[in-house]
Specification:
Elements lengths: L2 H12 L4 H7 L4 H15 L4 E4 L2 E5 L1 H28 L3 E8 L1 H18 L2 E8 L2 H9 L5 E4 L9 E9 L1 E5 L13 H5 L3 E4 L6 H10 L6 E5 L2 H9 L4 E5 L12 E4 L1 H4 L2 E8 L6 H10 L5 H8 L9
Parallel strand pairs: 3-4, 3-5, 8-9, 8-10
Antiparallel strand pairs: 1-2, 5-12, 6-12, 7-10, 7-11
C-alpha cells in the first residue's frame, strides 16, 4: 500500500469516477491509475468501486469506509506538510479565503488591509461563490477558510464559529413614502416591487420566511448576488431594495436612504468555517482574530479539537 494508491482513489471519486480525468488531474496515465487501484483492492481484499466492464461506476459499501480513511490519511499528510512549511517560514506562504460577494466587497477590505500590513509576504487569494460552493472549496482543500452567513453552519466536515451579527435594511429613494413610517411593516414593504438577493445569498431565506408566515406575496422584480447591482436598480426607480446592512454606506450611497428592518427579518450571523482536523498556520489564526475580535486562538483550537462547548454571539 502506498500514498499514490490513496491519492488515485480519492481523485477518482472527486472526478465523478472518470479515471481519465483523475489521471489528468494527477499528471499521470489512466492505465497507471487503474492498475494502482486494482492492486490496492487486492491488498485489502475488497472491491472499492462498483464496475460495469472496465469502467468504475461508484463506491461499494466497504469502498465508502475506505474512502473515509483515505480522506483522513491524506488530510493528516497535508497537515504534516503545512507544519513543515510554517516552521520554515513563519510569516510567508499562501492563504486562500472562500467567501460570498457581500463579504468580499463590504466586510473584508479593512480586514485584508490590516492583515497584509502584518504579513506582507503572504500571498492572499479570494475565491467567491454562493455558500454551498465556498463550503465545498474548504472541504476539498481549495481554500483555507470560508466566510458566509448561517447557511454554512452544520455543513459536514466543517467547524464554524460566529463572527458578527447584522440586519437587513430596505433601501429607497430620498423621497420614498416608506421613510414616513415610524416602523416599517411587512405589509408596507409588500406594496412595492422588490429588488433583493438571489435565494442562496445573504439571509434571503429569512426574508421569504417572514412574508410567508404573514401570508403575503413577495413581488420580487429582480434578484442579484451583488448589493451594488440592487442599489443601482433602486436608484433607477424600479423598486425598493432589501440588502445586508453592511452593504449600505450613507456617504457613498448619497442617492439612497436605508431603513433598518431587523425587527421584521431578525438578526443574521456571519460565520467563519475551517475544515475539521485541518492544520491552520499561525497567520490564519491572526486573520480570524482580525475578522472577529470575539474569537481567539485558544477558542478556535478548542472548537477544532472537538470541544463540545456551544459558542454563540
Amino acid at each position: 500500500m502506498n500514498l499514490h494508491q490513496l491519492r488515485f482513489v480519492r481523485e477518482a471519486v472527486r472526478q465523478n469516477y472518470n479515471l481519465t480525468d483523475a489521471a489528468k488531474a494527477l499528471f499521470t496515465s489512466q492505465p497507471g491509475v487503474s492498475k494502482a487501484i486494482i492492486e490496492l483492492e487486492e491488498e485489502l481484499g475488497v472491491d472499492i468501486f462498483t464496475r460495469h466492464g472496465k469502467r468504475i461506476r461508484g463506491l461499494t459499501e466497504p469502498g465508502r469506509l475506505v474512502l473515509e480513511s483515505v480522506e483522513l490519511i491524506m488530510q493528516e499528510i497535508d497537515s504534516l506538510k503545512r507544519i513543515g512549511k510554517e516552521y520554515a517560514a513563519q510569516d510567508s506562504g499562501s492563504f486562500t479565503i472562500a467567501t460570498t460577494h457581500t463579504q468580499a466587497r463590504y466586510t473584508l477590505p479593512k480586514v485584508v488591509q490590516a492583515f497584509m500590513l502584518k504579513f506582507p509576504k503572504v500571498r492572499l487569494s479570494l475565491l467567491q461563490g454562493n455558500p454551498q460552493q465556498i463550503a465545498e472549496m474548504v472541504q476539498r482543500d481549495q481554500a483555507d477558510l470560508a466566510i458566509a452567513t448561517e447557511s454554512i453552519a452544520g455543513v459536514t466536515g466543517l467547524i464554524t464559529l460566529p463572527c458578527y451579527q447584522w440586519e437587513h435594511v430596505v433601501v429607497v429613494a430620498p423621497d420614498h413614502p416608506l421613510l414616513k413610517s415610524r416602523q416599517v411593516t411587512l405589509e408596507e414593504i409588500a406594496a412595492f416591487p422588490i429588488i433583493t438577493y438571489d435565494g442562496a445569498f445573504a439571509g434571503r431565506s429569512k426574508i421569504d420566511h417572514a412574508f410567508s408566515l404573514r401570508g403575503l406575496k413577495l413581488d420580487v422584480l429582480l434578484e442579484a448576488i451583488d448589493a451594488d447591482v440592487i442599489k443601482t436598480y433602486v436608484e433607477l426607480g424600479m423598486g425598493i431594495g432589501i440588502i445586508a446592512g453592511m452593504a449600505f454606506d450613507a456617504e457613498r450611497d448619497k442617492n439612497l436612504r436605508a431603513i433598518p428592518v431587523g425587527h421584521l427579518f431578525g438578526m443574521n450571523v456571519s460565520r467563519v468555517a475551517v475544515k475539521q482536523g485541518a492544520y491552520l498556520r499561525s497567520y490564519i489564526y491572526t486573520f480570524i482574530e482580525l475578522l472577529a475580535p470575539t474569537l481567539n486562538r485558544k477558542l478556535i483550537e478548542q472548537a477544532m479539537s472537538g470541544a463540545k462547548e456551544h459558542y454563540e454571539l
